[in-house]
Amino acid sequence: MNYDHQFHAGNAADCCKHLALTLSLQALIRKDAPLAYIDTHAGAARYTLAREGEYREGIGRLWSNRRSLVHAATWLKTVAAANTDGALRHYPGSPAVAAALLRPTDRMVLCEQEAEPAQTLRTAMGRRAHTSILVENGYRALFAQIPPAERRGLVLLDPPFEARDEWERLTDTLLRAYQIWPQGMYLVWYPVKTRGTITRFLQGLRGKLPATVMELLQRPEEGRERLIGSGLLMINPTWGVVDSLAAAFAEIGPLLADPATGGRWSLRCEGWPKAPVPAQ
């Protein structure tokens, strides 16, 4: 795998996905019943920010404004807890974000197939109860975990998008997982880079499962193959999550916008229900 978590930690994509994860888990834990959290590409849980890393265009732009970003407050408190002296040196990954929110009775299943980050992840999670760390491919591991005994919960899918068949495998995984566990919430991050690829991805899902798609773009679409923003696909989003995330993205969007393009940013959202089953 070529993806360098250390260099990319805290970038704009991380800010978007971890903010969405926080708001989703907040909504789920409003009910007393325990839940399962499954992370298919967990990473190392905590990162020391690289001096020249991409965090400068992500959490670095939000950090000095953190007290005024009310819709992102809970997530930013998790980041602040990793930087107790107020200086931004560390960034919590998705397992740490989830662990900060979940209750002792909630179960975590964290998949990381690379041995080194898996060991770091194991150390970071410490003795947290009801936590499993699986050193295996997250796509395959997912199907052994659903439906969970808790019958409610969230699956985070955040692949590196390095493999040629990543989009196809992600589509197949979501369709199959939804058939097995249609009650679960699924949160998927994807790069907004090549619009044709994204269009085909969403066409493969539309009408087959209920979903909302939200994209926060940090720069205009110009037809070139470059990363311009983050996309989030939410299957079965809990009530209130979409509105909360839209408000949060509207808050952080101007701060994450690329100054080189005049500070332009945009927020796109669409959703669809599952197509009705034809009458027999």
UniProtKB/TrEMBL annotation:
<feature type="active site" description="Proton acceptor">
    <location>
        <position position="158"/>
    </location>
</feature>
<feature type="site" description="Interaction with substrate rRNA">
    <location>
        <position position="3"/>
    </location>
</feature>
<dbReference type="GO" id="GO:0036307">
    <property type="term" value="F:23S rRNA (adenine(2030)-N(6))-methyltransferase activity"/>
</dbReference>
<feature type="binding site">
    <location>
        <position position="158"/>
    </location>
    <ligand>
        <name>S-adenosyl-L-methionine</name>
    </ligand>
</feature>
<feature type="binding site">
    <location>
        <position position="18"/>
    </location>
    <ligand>
        <name>S-adenosyl-L-methionine</name>
    </ligand>
</feature>
<feature type="binding site">
    <location>
        <begin position="137"/>
        <end position="138"/>
    </location>
    <ligand>
        <name>S-adenosyl-L-methionine</name>
    </ligand>
</feature>
<dbReference type="InterPro" id="IPR029063">
    <property type="entry name" value="SAM-dependent_MTases_sf"/>
</dbReference>
<dbReference type="GO" id="GO:0005829">
    <property type="term" value="C:cytosol"/>
</dbReference>
<feature type="binding site">
    <location>
        <position position="94"/>
    </location>
    <ligand>
        <name>S-adenosyl-L-methionine</name>
    </ligand>
</feature>
<feature type="binding site">
    <location>
        <position position="41"/>
    </location>
    <ligand>
        <name>S-adenosyl-L-methionine</name>
    </ligand>
</feature>
<comment type="function">
    <text>Specifically methylates the adenine in position 2030 of 23S rRNA.</text>
</comment>
<dbReference type="Pfam" id="PF04378">
    <property type="entry name" value="RsmJ"/>
</dbReference>
<keyword id="KW-0949">S-adenosyl-L-methionine</keyword>
<keyword id="KW-0489">Methyltransferase</keyword>
<feature type="binding site">
    <location>
        <position position="112"/>
    </location>
    <ligand>
        <name>S-adenosyl-L-methionine</name>
    </ligand>
</feature>
<keyword id="KW-0694">RNA-binding</keyword>
<comment type="similarity">
    <text>Belongs to the RlmJ family.</text>
</comment>
<dbReference type="GO" id="GO:0070475">
    <property type="term" value="P:rRNA base methylation"/>
</dbReference>
<protein>
    <recommendedName>
        <fullName>Ribosomal RNA large subunit methyltransferase J</fullName>
        <ecNumber>2.1.1.266</ecNumber>
    </recommendedName>
</protein>
<comment type="subunit">
    <text>Monomer.</text>
</comment>
<keyword id="KW-0808">Transferase</keyword>
<dbReference type="GO" id="GO:0003723">
    <property type="term" value="F:RNA binding"/>
</dbReference>
<keyword id="KW-0698">rRNA processing</keyword>
<dbReference type="InterPro" id="IPR007473">
    <property type="entry name" value="RlmJ"/>
</dbReference>
